[in-house]
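S1.2 Input.
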Amino acid sequence: MLNVLVWLVAIEAVGLAAFPLCYYLFPRLRDRGISISKPLGLLLIGYLSWILSVLHVLPSVQITVAGLLVAVAGLSWWYLWGRRREVLGLLWRERTAILVAEAIFLALFFGWVIYRAYDPSISHTEKPMDFAFLNASVRSDFGAPEDPWLRGSSISYYYFGYWMMGTLTKLTGISSSISYNLSLALIPAMAAMGMFGLVYSLVRADSKRLRYALAGGIAAALLLTVVANLEGVLEFMRANGMGSSGFWDWVRIDGLDGPAPVLTETWRPQEFWWWWHATRVISTSGGGQLVDYTIQEFPFFSFMLGDLHPHVMSLPFVILFLAVCWNLLRSPLHVWREPSVRAYATILAIGLSLGGLGFTNMWDLPVFAALLLGTVALKTYTVRGGSVWGLVKGTVPFGAAVIGVALLLFLPYYLEFTSQVSGIAPVTGPTTRPIHMFIVWALFLVAIIPFILGVFWRTTLKEDWARLSLFSMLIGFLPYVVWAFLYAEGGGAFSGMLERLFHVLPWALLISIAVYSALWLSREDRPSMGKVFALGLSALGLLLIMGPELLYVDDAFGGATERMNTVFKLYYQGWIVLAAASGFALYYWGSLRESVSGWRRLSTHLWAGVVVVLLIGATYYPPAAAASKGDLFHEGATLDGLAFINRSRGAEYRAIQFIRETAGPDSAVLEAVGGGYSAFGRISASTGVPTVLGWPGHEVQWRGSSGPLEGRQEDVATIYQTQDVEEAKSLLARYRVDYVYVGPREEEQYGSEGLGKFPSFMDAPFSEDGVTVYRMPP
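S1.3 Output.
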């Protein structure tokens, strides 16, 4: 419990240190940025510790991080002290929203702490990989962290999320095996708090009714972090024997091949890992094989699964960036067009936020850079009208400045980053079936489509309606135009173009209508900028859904998995922006009910009923899945992610602790090499002390080729198996290895014949119950 409180106090201190900066930078946010101060503070202190470390100015150690926190707090509160009366006035005026935001944060934080205490194990899936990167970040004093699974190389992955969580780990002094799980509790809490604050601000810009703004913000926070897709309803039906064979053949979801034999009625399925199916809804089968294997995670699943992946860690920072864009849209044009301290500070803050997003999760960089450019273009159009040259003149310089700052601030990383991506390619194979699209997106679509159409219905024809329509259609249909060009270039038939056009036509039209309505509203005498921004987010979310039906990012995956990463990453981003848009849409229709009557009022009642039914369906999965995966309250609670090793292999656990405590900054450990998603690589992953080679398949994915690891797997085998002491010493020296781990995996993989040589030239400071750690003598 002490670790939980220390972690909580630390993040609250980080948020308080950053609040004055939020107050200065985000005057157009209703709460002046209190709800996003925690991620901003973590971003700023994480960046400063990283850049000072990379430039070899200061080591990234506890005293440095603490000093940075004190320095940021001192400077920012010095600025705020002269404005303390107006700050106190703000806190009093917005006391209800501030208290609700903090209550949301604490509820999510402690809720996930409790869950993680009963499901803490850093094992299975890709948790060992995430733990390895977290430990590497914690161990790194100067420069980029060394790859724990490729001795002598820095991490070739977007690792800033691990660095930020590692920074908080250093600040608190908590063991990384505990801070890993505390990070998984912190991320949804910060995300929910930020989402509440963002949508609260959007609604307050449109309405003076406090209860509407609170309801919209809470709804958006729940849609982001609590609800699931509707696959859980199908799991309930199947577990209780509902549905005919024909129905299940039509649904055709991998793992749901018909009604399960019902022994007793149950409130949740009992099958092993049934909850996994909810992220494999779209995968299409043909001829007994998967022909379109995709992934469509959603935040609750990610939090429950416990993989500390970049797309998960980026959540609160994406919401921070959305809030930055909202503040930018509402700011007077002169604030960021004229040379001034505030203009430069605004560009620097947006650049830091955007660059940090790319460093945390590279997939976020192009999507939210596009959102930034769209926001600036919309602001320019609002003030100056719609001439093409005026939009270019108003958008390009500011956008280029922010993107330039984003790249410059993180230049040491971007210069070294290598990617497996080779370009964009057209989707020529299977696309998403309507029933699968409904299962994944029904709740959000039922929320935003009536909102988009309702606002559009109230627009009127203005003198520039034709230009607005053309521009809106260009945005809505541009992905299809790009697809058609690439498809035709590859020899595609006209019939295929026509078929794909009808497939994406509803999405393209909705996007066009949303963009048209946003542009139309922005030129009103007293524009409702909350509606404008919500429409923009709706259009972006729909683009992220439509995009993978046309184009995919060409990476290391191919064949049936070519769309996998594209659907995975874009759908995740779509979930975030549509949660915000849906929160506003729910407010919009809720407030509209008071001003309509007759059939219009009846239609709002019917719509509300559909939303409630879908919401009930979407909230079934979280408690059922959490109860199944976590097996809650059946074992003693702990937040130590390595406790499962201590229970099953106590000697291995103590060997890990020994290496963690005694390894030097440039130490390396030798351990057996094995396949991914396994216990191989566990020692290096659990300590952050690099090994010669970890999971080879993952290294190839991260680096785009097998070149950097060629020969390493054979060298490791030689070191363990050879009986020639000099050959072993030579190879150990090549990789600068000073620890050799010998346990059951090593003996099983390489045999025991060559292990007798190690005592002849190495010490054995740890030996217990079949596990020995050898160390080179000083």
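S1.4 Remarks. The first helix runs from residue 2 to 25.
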